[in-house]
Structures are given as structure tokens and as C-alpha cells.
């Protein structure tokens, strides 16, 4: 498991960020029951009494990359804006190979020693690429209006389906910062919030 992240501030109101990561794992599994081992010394109640071995090797890797930029601006007075854009990449890869040997000879412990042999292989891959934009308008750090749009494309969509748009809009008001709000030690902050948006899950 490894990851790298970096930030760059070319201007006081502009910053860029990049995050990359890799999560890799591998497994080697072996199940062995030699001939005439295990409970019940007959093939009816114990189908593997004649010897059974299974060997499976698998690998999994998850790649992620995320890059974006954020700009802040104070047009006038107590008004502030924050604009953000970015792209995100996600790749999930998995591969597994399994070998099975049945009816092993005495002392046989490998799949190629079985009188009956089977093999199987599985590989899956999923890639997701998305981009987004978001705008936040605030007043006196108490009232916030947020709007954004995200687009996601996935390798599982196929060639006849390009991608999906996910819009969002919201507003919030930290009413506890207003002078008319009653002050009490039991409540530090009180915010009113309303949001609407769309989301999805990876196929």
C-alpha cells in the first residue's frame, strides 16, 4: 500500500493538489486432503477420501488518482466565493487462477498428480473516470450557497452509454452566529441546512 500527495500554491488565492495511490495484495491458497485421510473412510460420505488438492493464486490491485484546483475570491464586503474543479481516476483489477486435482495416489500432494484435473481462471477489471466542478458563495462566514456538477464514466457502461451527470445544490445558515440567537453554554453552534443532489454507485 502506497500513496503520494502534493500541493502547490502559485498564488495566495489559488492552489492545486494531486493524490495518487496503489493498494496491491496477493494470496496463495492450498487445500490438501491426502488419500484415505479425513473423517469417514468411504467416498459416499467423504467425497475427498480418494485425495483432493486445490491450489489458488490471486492478485488484486486498486489504483487511484485525484487532481484538482481551488480558487478563492472576495468580490466585495463580506462576500466570498470558492471555485473548485477536479478529475478522479479509479481502477480495480483482480485476477485468480485455480487448479484442482482429484483421486490422488498415495503420497500425492500436487494438482498434476490427480487422476482428475480441473483448472479455472478469472480476471475482472473496472475503470471509473470522473470530473467535477463546485461553486460556494458565502456571506460573513454564516450563510453559504453551494452548487456543483459531477460527471462519471465507467468501463462497465459499454460503448452505447457515455456516462452520468450528478448535480447538487444546497444552502446553509449558521443561525447561532446571529446577534438575535439566544446564547447558552449547552449549545455551541446551530446550523440550518437544505440540500438536493443525485448520486450513484459503481456498476
Sequence-ordered SSE layout with sheet pairings:
Layout: E1 2-11, E2 14-33, E3 52-73, E4 79-102, E5 116-139, E6 143-154, E7 164-174, E8 191-197
Antiparallel strand pairs: 1-2, 2-3, 3-4, 4-5, 5-6, 6-7, 7-8
Can you describe this structure?
- The protein has 203 residues and is mostly beta strands.
- 0% of the residues lie in helices and 64% in strands.
- The chain has no helices and 8 strands.
- A hairpin with a 3-residue loop joins strand 5 and strand 6.
- It starts with a strand and ends in a 6-residue tail after the last strand.
Strand content: over 45%
Amino- and carboxy-terminal Cα gap: 24 Å
Helicity range of the residues? under 10%
pLDDT average, as an integer?
Answer: 90
Which regions are unreliable across 5 or more consecutive residues at pLDDT < 50?
none
Keywords:
eight-stranded antiparallel beta sheet, mainly beta, elongated, 8 strands, 64% strand
Brief overview, please?
The chain has 203 residues and is mainly β. The chain has strands at 2-11, 14-33, 52-73, 79-102, 116-139, 143-154, 164-174, 191-197.
